[in-house]
Write a structure and sequence with these properties.
Main location: membrane
CATH class of the largest domain: Mainly Beta
Strand content: 25-35%
GO cellular component, one term: membrane
Order of helices and strands: HEEEEEEEHEHH
Radius of gyration: 31 Å
Helix content: 40-55%
Subcellular location: Membrane
Protein name: Emp24/gp25L/p24 family/GOLD-domain-containing protein
Shape: elongated
Organism: Mycena albidolilacea
Largest sheet: 4 strands, antiparallel
CATH topology of the largest domain: Jelly Rolls
Number of strands: 8
Number of domains: 2
Distance between the termini: 114 Å
Low-confidence stretches: 1-5, 21-26
Length: 225
């Protein structure tokens, strides 16, 4: 008689959490990029923290009389340009390190050759297969294992260490955001309170001025002594 093995609920939940953690999120996308004489920029954005390693793998499909340029930027007010490359073909692998918390954008432009008419351009495009790895996902653990002679278990532990570090960094980032929002909230409340006091004092001063003004007016009209 076969018996089924049942795990305790807390242990099963912990095992499920570990398995979900080991599955990396997907940052791959495939799309068609229309060509133009003066093409707009098509950007794919991903969240990244300060100092994160970003590996961009772009596979550009064939297309005659077209030139695809790539640019990696961030969403900071300075709009930093980490890397820019013209006329990429086939598979292109690029690596950058972020300098600020926020989003990293991988932008493409598909330029039409000057000898091709705009009417033909409506049917011309190139297929872009984009894969973006950020943080622990961008680390080549197989190369590290070969270099440091790590076993399979040690390699998995190294991966878990990287993932845990990312989680800690994420918690630190969220804590900083919470503190910044709290400071903004306190500052806003202080400004509202100051404006309320200013309004009250202004109304009081206006009321006093009106009393003296009316009193002076009535005296000039001999309505009061």
């Amino acid at each position: 008689m076969a018996s089924s093995l049942r795990l305790p609920a807390p242990l099963a939940a912990l095992l499920l959490l570990v398995l979900c953690t080991l599955v990396p999120p997907i940052h791959a996308i495939k799309f068609s990029l229309q060509t133009f004489r003066f093409p707009p920029s098509k950007c794919i954005w991903n969240t990244a923290h300060d100092g994160a390693l970003v590996i961009v793998t772009a596979n550009v499909g064939p297309g005659d009389n077209q030139r695809v340029d790539i640019e990696i930027i961030d969403s900071s007010p300075e709009k930093r340009v980490y890397l820019s490359k013209r006329d990429i073909k086939g598979e292109t692998r690029l690596a950058v390190t972020t300098h600020a918390d926020g989003e990293v954008g991988v932008c493409f432009k598909n330029y039409l050759h000057k000898d091709i008419s705009s009417e033909k351009a409506t049917k011309m495009s190139r297929i872009i297969d984009l894969d973006v790895d950020i943080g622990a996902e961008a680390v080549d653990y197989n190369a590290i294992a070969n270099q440091e002679s790590l076993s399979g278990l040690e390699t998995e532990m190294r991966k878990l260490e990287g993932l845990v570090k990312e989680i800690v960094d994420e918690m630190g980032y969220l804590k900083k955001r919470e503190e910044r929002f709290a400071d903004t909230n306190v500052s806003t409340q202080q400004r509202v309170q100051n404006f309320a006091w200013f309004t009250i004092l202004s109304l009081a001063a206006l009321g006093v001025w009106q009393i003296f003004h009316l009193r002076s007016f009535f005296r000039r009209k001999y309505l009061i002594d």
